[in-house]
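task queued by scheduler; priority normal; single chain, no ligands, no partner chains; default sampling; output format set to C-alpha cells
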Amino acid sequence: MSEANWYVVHTYSGYENKVKANIEKTIENRHLEEEILDVRVPLQTVMETKNGVTKQTQKKLFPGYVLVNMVMNDDTWYVVRNTRGVTGFVGPGSKPVPLTYDEMRNLGIAGGKVEAPVKPRRIVDFDKGDTVVVVAGAWDGTVGLVTAVNTQKETVTINVELFGRDTPVEISFNDVKKKA
C-alpha cells in the first residue's frame, strides 16, 4: 500500500462542512477507511470584539478548502473529485500535489495529530478611517480617527488632537470601542 499524504481540495465557499460530511459518508459506504484516513476543515480560534464585547469564536482558516489525508490512487481520486461541492484538487492541472510535512506542521497538524493550539487571533469591529472612543487608560474618553490596525500586536493607532495638531497614539484593542 502506498503512503498517505495530505491533499487540499477546493470546494464551493460555504460548502466545506457539507463536503467533509459527504466524503466521510462515501468512505463508510465504499469501505475506504484504509485509503482515505481523515477529512478536516481547518478552523482557527478568533477573539471578536463588537460594541466593546469580546467573545471567542471558531472561523474557517481557509474558506473554500478542505484537507484530506489519503492514499492517492485512481479510486480515491475519483471519489473525492466527484463529491458534490468539490471543484477539484489543488495542484497543476488534474494532478494533486500533497502538502509537505512543514506545511502541515504550520497548520498545527503533524503526523495526523493536532498539536497545541496557536494563540487566538483577534477580530475587531473597527477599521482604518473609523472613529473610536478610548474607554481605558491615560486617553480614557478621547475620541480619535483610526489610522492603522495591527492585528499582530492587537493595537490600533488613532489620531488625537494634542497641542493643536493631530498626533498618532497606539492603543490596545481592549481599550477602544467603535463610536456609535
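post-processing summary
- The longest strand covers residues 43-50.
- Residues 112-117 have pLDDT under 50 and may be disordered.
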